[in-house]
């Protein structure tokens, strides 16, 4: 049998798969959620003004104005002399007073405010640039050396680098270490999610792939809680880093991906792991049943011709000629060259559209998260609300992908995420003679957009991986996530722009990009309920309608007949392999 059938036989949602699903989900998302998003709190810019010498009054030393009935001091200027005599101002000369409510951030550590207020956002972008460069390298290594080795190794180095960040003695060291962290996060997430996806067969992959998002949300929501109670950024950085040390235990408990092992030709090792999984799941399967079909492998025609299936006292025999005819169509090449991603038109199209998906999702998703601190109200509460809206988004994504498929769902969610962001630019802060505050409407539209982009993200993580053959799945993921990383690079400046007169621009750009990504999805095939492609021909088969029985009142057309023949060819190997595996049982029952 092939690997998908073997996973169906020993897997499902039994205890081993559930345990691995939870373990890999948390292991893959923890560094991304904690290390990747911690900048929202570590880099928070608290209210501040120029330092005022002892003995001088703040309101006489700092320019101020009334905003919504409250005094707002200038952040970057102070009077050079008494304002009653001269109205001249000067810069703060590198000294500020912060009103941070007891919190201490990296912005305060190195005074990244006023003319330097872009530097922390720049460090975020540098981290994303490092992630972009890492995508191809780490993805190739994951395909070359295996998912397990890369996943565990990345956790070890993440803990070391993360703790080192907390002891940075300057801004440059801080930025360099965060760039290294960006590289490690890419390898960790890509290897972990690929392993988790490859745990399940085709019919269970939708729930598993999208269900991972629940673990992402749980880790996402835990970050503001930690940041609320841990007031010093260095302590917070240490706490989120030492957690990776626990995952070193995966090296002894986590088996390698079965799909990767078969793609690498390590069938004996894969069959041994299948046997262990069957025992852990309590599935009683003879070892002969778990033998995997090798590429190009033929079945001994003389042996198969002697197989007799006893059914209602009638013996059926299969002739050697019939077997050889069907076997001619079941040899499937497993290793697809990497250059195929650049030379095959179908692969190039998939790479480009998936790149647009990831660019749009990274730009909108992370742009909204990073700008949450600039929204009205409490920054911890805003961050939590943005996390909570993902829970119903995941449920809705699960339902729609099962009901309408990946393709249509992705189109709808991208467009629905873009429209509210376009509307936002037309909403003033206040309206009417009484000055009705429209900030609640603004925040509501932003949360609606976050809901739909979260649903889209939950789908494309699974959808894009289903568009490529096994041994190119991680490499292709690295390629299309390069453009996605460009979206992540731009996302930190959404927060920076929110502090300027161009606060409306990021929402408009994000909205247009999201809508374009939705429209482009119409050129992709539907993958819902289809087997993970193992070869290039399997990818092309995604564009063909799934095999179905023709209507009894309608003669089959040429296309229908061809599809039926192709389906029969694909099923031939599985049928014959099953017959071969059952031969010993049949001979014992019938005495043949």
Describe this structure in words.
Helix content is 62%, strand content 5%. By secondary structure, it is mainly alpha-helical. Strands 1-6 form a two-stranded antiparallel ribbon. Strands 2-3 form a two-stranded antiparallel ribbon. Strands 4-5 form a two-stranded antiparallel sheet. It is elongated, with a radius of gyration of 29 Å.
Shape summary: elongated
Beta-strand content estimate: 5-15%
Question: How is the biggest beta sheet arranged?
Answer: 2 strands, antiparallel
Number of helices: 27
Strand order within the widest beta sheet:
1-6
Helix/strand class: mainly alpha
| Helix percentage range | 55-70%
Number of strands: 10
Q: Whole-Å distance between the termini?
A: 24 Å
Mean of the pLDDT scores? 78
Radius of gyration: 29 Å
Parts with pLDDT < 50 across at least 5 consecutive residues: 298-333, 549-565, 572-592
Brief summary:
The protein has 27 helices and 10 strands. With 592 residues, the protein is mostly helical. It has a two-stranded antiparallel sheet with strand order 1-6. The chain has a two-stranded antiparallel sheet with strand order 2-3. A two-stranded antiparallel ribbon has the order 4-5.
């Amino acid at each position: 049998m092939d690997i998908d059938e073997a996973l169906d036989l020993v897997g499902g949602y039994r205890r081993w798969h559930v345990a691995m699903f939870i373990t890999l989900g948390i292991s893959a998302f923890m560094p991304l959620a904690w290390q990747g998003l911690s900048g929202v709190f570590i880099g928070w810019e608290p209210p501040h003004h120029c330092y005022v010498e002892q003995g001088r009054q703040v309101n006489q030393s700092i320019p101020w104005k009334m905003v919504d009935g409250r005094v707002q001091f200038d952040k970057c200027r102070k009077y050079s002399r008494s304002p009653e005599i001269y109205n001249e101002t000067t810069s703060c000369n590198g000294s500020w007073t912060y009103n941070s409510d007891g919190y201490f951030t990296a912005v305060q550590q190195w005074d990244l405010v006023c003319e330097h207020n872009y530097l922390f956002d720049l460090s975020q972008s540098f981290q994303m640039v490092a992630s972009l460069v890492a995508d191809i390298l780490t993805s190739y290594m994951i395909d070359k050396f295996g998912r397990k080795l890369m996943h565990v190794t990345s956790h070890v180095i993440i803990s070391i680098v993360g703790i080192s960040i907390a002891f940075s003695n300057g801004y440059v060291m801080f930025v360099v270490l965060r760039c290294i962290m960006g590289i490690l996060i890419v390898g960790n997430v890509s290897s972990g999610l690929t392993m988790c996806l490859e745990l399940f067969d085709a019919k269970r992959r939708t729930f598993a792939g999208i269900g991972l998002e629940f673990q992402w949300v749980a880790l996402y929501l835990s970050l503001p809680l930690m940041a609320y109670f841990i007031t010093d950024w260095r302590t917070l950085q240490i706490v989120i880093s030492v957690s990776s040390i626990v995952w070193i235990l995966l090296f002894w408990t986590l088996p390698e991906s079965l799909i990767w092992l078969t793609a690498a030709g390590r069938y004996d090792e894969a069959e041994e792991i299948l046997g262990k999984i069957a025992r852990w799941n309590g599935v009683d399967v003879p070892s002969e049943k778990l033998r995997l079909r090798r590429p190009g492998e033929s079945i001994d025609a003389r042996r198969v011709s002697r197989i007799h299936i006893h059914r209602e006292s009638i013996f059926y025999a299969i002739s050697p000629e019939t077997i050889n005819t069907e076997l001619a169509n079941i040899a499937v090449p497993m290793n697809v060259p990497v250059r195929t991603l650049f030379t095959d038109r179908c692969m190039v199209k998939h790479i480009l559209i998936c790149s647009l998906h990831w660019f749009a999702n990274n730009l909108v998703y992370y742009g909204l998260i990073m700008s949450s601190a600039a929204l009205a109200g409490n920054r911890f509460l805003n961050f939590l609300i943005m996390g909570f809206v993902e829970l119903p988004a995941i449920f809705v994504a699960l339902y729609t992908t099962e009901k309408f498929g990946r393709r249509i769902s992705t189109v709808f969610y991208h467009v629905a995420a873009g429209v509210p962001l376009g509307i936002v630019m037309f909403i003033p802060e206040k309206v009417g003679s009484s000055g009705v505050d429209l900030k609640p409407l603004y925040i509501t539209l932003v949360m609606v957009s976050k809901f739909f982009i979260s649903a889209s993200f939950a789908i494309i993580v699974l959808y894009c991986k289903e568009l490529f053959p096994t041994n190119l799945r991680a490499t292709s993921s690295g390629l299309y996530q390069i453009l996605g990383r460009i979206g992540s690079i731009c996302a930190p400046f959404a927060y920076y722009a929110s502090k300027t007169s161009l606060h409306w621009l990021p929402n408009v750009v994000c909205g247009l990009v999201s809508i374009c990504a939705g429209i482009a999805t119409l050129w992709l095939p539907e993958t819902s309920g289809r087997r993970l492609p193992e070869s290039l021909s399997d990818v092309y088969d995604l564009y063909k309608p799934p095999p179905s029985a023709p209507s009894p009142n309608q003669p089959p057309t040429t296309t229908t007949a061809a599809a039926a023949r192709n389906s029969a060819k694909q099923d031939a190997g599985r049928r014959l392999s099953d017959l071969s595996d059952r031969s010993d049982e049949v001979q014992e029952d019938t005495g043949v």
